[in-house]
Amino acid sequence: MIKVAISDAHGVVREGLHAILRCSGDFSVVGEAVDGASTLELARTTDAALLTLGLLMPGIHGLDLISLIKNENPALRVLVVTMRAEESFAARAFKAGASGYITKNCSATEFLDAARKVGAGGVYVSVAMADEFAHGLADMGSALPHQRLSAREFEVFLLIAAGESVAGIAEKLGLSAKTVSTHRTRILEKSSLANDAALVRYAVHHSLFEDDSREAL
Fold first, then answer.
1. Which of 38, 73, 36, 41 is nearest to 56 (CA)?
2. Domain 144-205 maps to which CATH number in 1.10.3720.10, 1.10.10.10, 3.90.226.10, 1.10.472.10?
3. Residues contacting 51, CB < 8 A, separation 6+
4. DSSP letters of 11-57?
5. How far apart are CA 40 and CA 79, in angstroms?
6. Which residues, 6 or more positions from 68, have their beta carbon under 8 angstroms from its beta carbon?
7. Tens digit of each residue's pLDDT (9 = 90 or more) over 106-127
């Protein structure tokens, strides 16, 4: 039986994943977390083989949280369960240390398939996402502006688009305001956008926001 820990800011999601895992008979849920701090504490103390991780939560979150989880517990396998269905973001999640990536609109069967494979030491990406990866590799020359950003620039991009101030982004990411401002300047230059309002319009046009939250993690 595979031991699993669940991290997500939303109680309904945690309860739903718990129920699916319990009913399968293949998993034992040994812990839950609701924000960045409790997720890192769980990573430090759990004997789980697998952590299912929602990326939008209070405190430390997103790609930085994946990296910190792996620093705390390198053996813990991370399966990202998120609303973001974009291959460029999935690629960044894998680079940060995730071993699986699925979206929250997947079926219970696919979620269990992913959990089994990642929990057993494998890597999982949905067929639809795999097609996106293949398309992206075959068409690198026509990548959208946001797909050319570095992982950090992309994270700052999403936070600006979600309405965060420079000071707020600096606090969330543990950076100086000057560094965030530098990232902002580079983002606008690389994206050929004039200002933050144009950046928000771009994010809306390309559906880079998380459903119901105007955040994209």
1. 36
2. 1.10.10.10
3. 4, 5, 6, 7, 39, 42, 43, 69, 76, 77, 78, 79
4. HHHHHHHHHHHHHHSSEEEEEEE-SHHHHHHHHHH---SEEEE-S--
5. 15
6. 40, 43, 60
7. 899 999 999 999 999 998 987 6
CB 73 within 8 A of CB 27: no
> What are the pLDDT digits (tens) for 12-37?
999 999 999 999 999 999 999 999 99
Residue 9's alpha-carbon distances to 47, 52, 74, 158, 167, in angstroms, are 21, 12, 23, 18, 23
pTM over 0.90: no
153-212 pLDDT, tens digit each? 888 888 888 888 999 888 888 889 999 999 999 999 888 888 888 888 888 887 776 443
| Residue tagged 């993690």 (tokens) | 217
**Domain 2-136 belongs in CATH node 1.10.260.40:** no
User: Mapping DSSP to helix (H, G, I), strand (E, B) and coil, where does residue 63 land?
Assistant: helix
Q: Tokens at residue 167, please?
A: 């000071």
